[in-house]
Design a protein that fits this description.
- The structure is a single chain.
- The strands form 2 sheets. The chain has a 7-stranded mixed β-barrel. A two-stranded antiparallel ribbon has the order 10-11.
- The protein is an alpha+beta fold.
- Strand 5 and strand 6 (about 115) form a beta hairpin.
- About 40% of the residues lie in helices and about 20% in strands.
- Helix 8 runs parallel beside helix 10.
- It folds into 2 domains: about 50-175, Sandwich (Immunoglobulin-like), CATH 2.60.40; about 185-375, no CATH class.
Amino acid sequence: MHGFLLDMEQFIGIIIDVLLKLVTPLVRLMKWLYSLLPFEINSKRKKPNLGIIENSYKNHTWNVSKNGEREGISINTDWHITNTLPYNLTALNVRLRKPIKVKGSWMAKDTKSKYWGHYDIPQGYTTDVSFTFWLEDYSIKDDSKELSATIEIIDPIGRVHTLKNVKVKPIGSRKSKDQEQLPTENPAQIESPLEKTVVAVLKDEIEQYKVRGRREGQLGSVEWQRGTIEWHTKGETMKFLNKSSSRTLVQSSNSNALVRLYEKSDENDKNTIVEALTMRLNKETEYSDVGYMIFLTLFELGFLEKGLSTALIKLSNDKKHGFSDTLRLLDLLLAFRYEEFDEEDLDITEKIAFSTEEDTFQIKQRVNAIRIMRIE
């Protein structure tokens, strides 16, 4: 009897082993097939987040506008988007949930060109997108008021990605229109031909800024590498510096012209150029909007401290965005031309960043990143 029980136990063990060998591959096969199911069916899988962050170089804005005979509010928001989803973004829908519910329109920058439209965003690609909303018959009494918005993005499979507490700033308010116009400098009254040339370049930059300014996410004639280096997925480290540092990554045709003028001048003329630039880095002049270009030129000529300290004293607390754009340009230089900053330059930069209440973008973080990089 005892031997019979042993035989039964062995038999049951053999049966269990056989079943496990048969069932285990079957379970694996079922899991694999389940992973291929459409997203609508496979709803219990962990859903990845869409990688979207604010464009740190471009404000979200609203303004009063007309659509035919109807008056309302136009809201424009700008973002950097990284397609971290497991499928291509072939189409998007956007809608505003707050302050009111309304459908919107979207445009994306083509990942393979400079054109904008309803372009696909492949997996793993980063590009710029803009969302626009028209609030018909909607009015705001205080045209200097900042709005708080909630935006929903609906992707190709119907998943909703929500952006909450989006700060939308006013533009073109009546208050700004009533502000006193800054005096326009008359080049005919300038005796020095060299200074006239400097002024000619600055006045051209003013025109460039009118069509390629802060509202468009640009800085006049300044060109830099587009995209973002701040976006990271869960588990990844933040990246505050570009992979390489090069002068070609941030430059301006107008600034380059002034650098060439400086390089072919004698010492007296060089001083004239620097002083002509410095004295116009002032919120009381017509050049307040293009202070970034004056600062960039002073940086190129080796006068970082002079440019930053002058901007802090003469340009900060301006009624427009001259000082903010200058800090924005400094932020770009740290991100893409960091090898040109020695320790003394970093000290100067850090001092300025901690001396102002203005938004300093990622300046402090980039200074830290440069120092850490140099430990290696």
